[in-house]
Design a protein that fits this description.
alpha/beta; 6 helices; Rossmann fold; 222 residues; 8 strands
Length: 222
C-alpha cells in the first residue's frame, strides 16, 4: 500500500522512510518508529493499517537501510547502541513530523520497543507532535525528565518483560503523576514485543486490544 520516500530532516538533509497514505486528503498524521530490528516489513504493515484507519503514516528509517533478522539480537543491540537518539529524534523524527504536518493537520507519534523510547523523547522535544502512544519502550533516566513531556501520552506495557520491567513502568508512572502530566497506561499479561505478529512473543488478544485503544486515543487527540 505504501511507498518508500525521501523527506527533509529538520536540518534540511535528506532522510528516507515508508509512507502509507490515507484514502481521504488532509488526514491527520502518525509517525511510526521502528523496533531495534530496523524498518522491516512488520513496521511497514503498521503504517498500512494506520492508513486504512484514516491516518497518513510515515515510518522514518533510523538505521539508513539496515534491517536486522529477528534471530540476531546481538546485531540489533549493536545498531541500537550506535544510534544517536537525540540527533535521530531532533532531526530525522522531527523531519517526519514536519512532513506530515505540512498541510496543517495534527500529528501523533507511536513507537515499539526502541521506537517507544524515541516516541517518549519526541513527546518532550518535538513541537510538531500533538500526542504520543508508546508500546513497551522507555528511554534511560539520563535521557529525559518525565516533567518534560509536553503532550498527552498513552502507554502499553507488558507484565512479563525482562527489558522494560513492571517496576520500571511503575516508577515512570509515579514520576508522571508527580509531574502532573496527562497520561494513561495499560498493562498486559504478555511479553515484551507482544504487538509484533511475526515473532513468537506475539499475543493476539493483547495486540488487538492495544490497537483498539490506540485508535481510540488518536480519534480523541488528532
Amino acid at each position: 500500500m505504501g511507498t518508500q520516500i525521501s523527506f527533509s530532516r529538520a536540518d534540511g538533509r535528506l532522510a528516507t522512510g515508508y509512507l502509507a497514505k490515507a484514502a481521504k486528503p488532509n488526514a491527520p498524521g502518525v509517525v511510526v518508529i521502528q523496533e531495534w530490528w530496523g524498518l522491516q516489513d512488520q513496521i511497514r504493515g503498521i503504517c498500512d493499517r494506520l492508513a486504512l484507519a484514516g491516518y497518513e503514516a510515515l515510518a522514518p528509517d533510523l538505521y539508513a537501510g539496515t534491517v536486522v533478522p529477528y534471530h540476531d539480537a546481538q546485531a540489533a543491540a549493536r545498531e541500537m547502541n550506535s544510534l544517536n537518539f537525540a540527533e535521530a529524534t531532533d532531526q530525522v523524527v522531527r523531519g517526519a513530523a514536519q512532513y506530515l504536518a505540512k498541510t496543517g493537520v495534527k500529528v501523533g507519534i507511536t513507537g515499539f520497543c526502541m521506537g517507544g523510547a524515541v516516541a517518549i523523547l519526541a513527546a518532550c522535544r518535538i513541537p510538531e507532535v500533538s500526542a504520543a502512544v508508546v508500546f513497551y519502550g522507555l528511554p534511560p533516566e539520563t535521557a529525559f525528565k518525565p516533567s518534560d513531556i509536553k503532550v498527552p501520552l498513552e502507554g502499553h506495557y507488558a507484565n512479563i518483560d525482562d527489558h522494560i520491567t513492571p517496576q520500571k513502568v511503575d516508577a515512570f508512572e509515579a514520576a508522571l503523576k508527580a509531574a502532573k502530566r496527562k497520561f494513561k497506561f495499560y498493562r498486559y499479561e504478555a511479553d515484551h514485543g507482544f504487538m509484533n505478529e511475526q515473532r513468537d512473543v506475539h499475543e493476539r488478544k493483547a495486540a488487538e486490544l492495544g490497537w483498539k485503544r490506540m485508535l481510540a486515543f488518536w480519534k480523541k487527540q488528532l
